[in-house]
Amino acid sequence: MRMMILAALGLSAAATGALTQEWTPHQGEGLNAGAQARWPSGAILFARCDAGQLALLTPLAAPIQGDLARVEYGFDDADPVAETWSVSGDGRTVFARNPGRFARALMNASSLSLHVAGEGGPTQRFDLDLSDQAEPLARTLTACGERLEDPSDALPLITGPQWAHRPNASIIRHLYPLEAAAAGRSGVAHAACIARWDGVLEDCRLLSETPRGLGFGEATLAAARHHRLEPAPQQGTDPRRGLVHLSIRWQVG
Q: 73 vs 109, 135, 217, 252, CA distance in Å?
C-alpha cells in the first residue's frame, strides 16, 4: 500500500514558521490514519493514509497554470532538490513524487524550505521549523505499509534523467490495461526505481496512480523494465547509482 501526504501551505507568496509545530493525529472519513502540523503563518503539513495515494496540497494566491509545478525543497543545510510535481485540475494542489522518502525526511529534519512555482505565477516560498515529535506521522506511514527507515533514501535523486532506451509505441499498446482501453480511459502513474550505473532500473515501486483500480500502476511498473538510462562510469563499489522517478501518462489512441 502506498502512502498519501498532503501539505497545505498558506495563501501568501512567502511564509515563515516562527514556531516549531508538533505533529498531531488527524481523523477523517475513510482515512486509515492521518497527521498534521500547523504554523502561525498559516502553513499546514497534512499527512494521511487513504487507500495509498500521495498528494502535496498548496492553496495558492493564484492557481498554478498547467498540470506540472516546479518544486524545490531542502531539509536543514542539505542542498535543495528540484523536482516536477503534478498539479490538480483546479491548479491549487501539487502532488509529491515520492511520499515515503519525503515523509521520512520530515521526521528526521529540523527545518524545511519549500518553493513551489507554476507557469507564469509567483514562486511561493515556505521556510518551516520542524518538530521531532512526529509519532502521529510515523503511525500514518506504518498504516500505509511504508518503512520508517529505508536505505534507498540515502541514494542521490537523479533529476533530468537521460534515457538511452524507452518503450516504443508497440510496447505501450501491448501494456495498456485492457479494461481501461475498452472503456476509452486515460490515466497517469508515478513510480520510483533504483538505477544502476549501467543504466538498468531495478526495485521499482509504485507511488501513485490516477484513476485507481484500472491497472495503470501495474502497466507503469511493467514499462519500467523497458527503460534504460544512459550508462555512467561507476564510482566506488556500490552498483546503485541513484533513485530515479518515472512517470507515464497513458492515453488511448
A: 12, 23, 26, 34
Cis previous bond, 211, omega within 30: yes
Collapsed DSSP state (helix, strand, coil) of residue 205: strand
Cα–Cα distance measured from residue 86 to residue 67, given in angstroms and rounded to the nearest whole number: 6
The kind and range of the H/E element at 6 are: strand 4-8
H-helix or E-strand spanning residue 228: strand 228-229
Question: How far, in Å, are 68, 158, 162, 195, 223 from residue 116 at the CA level?
Answer: 10, 19, 24, 27, 30
Q: At CA 28, angle to CA 23 and CA 29, rounded to 5?
A: 160
Q: Are 193 and 204 in contact (CB under 8 A)?
A: yes
**What are 148-197's pLDDT values in tens digits?**
999 999 999 998 899 999 999 999 999 999 999 999 999 999 999 999 99
- Tell me the three cell numbers of residue 113: 524550505
The 8-class DSSP code of residue 243 comes to E
Question: Which residues have CB under 8 Å from 69's CB, separation 6+?
Answer: 84, 85, 86, 87, 94, 116, 117, 118
Indicate whether this model's pTM tops 0.90: no
Say how far apart CA 87 and CA 122 lie, in whole Å. Answer: 16
SS3 (DSSP) at 117: strand
Indicate the burial class of 175 (C-beta count within 10 angstroms; 0-12, 13-18, 19 or more). buried
Is residue 126 within 8 Å of 15, Cβ to Cβ?
yes
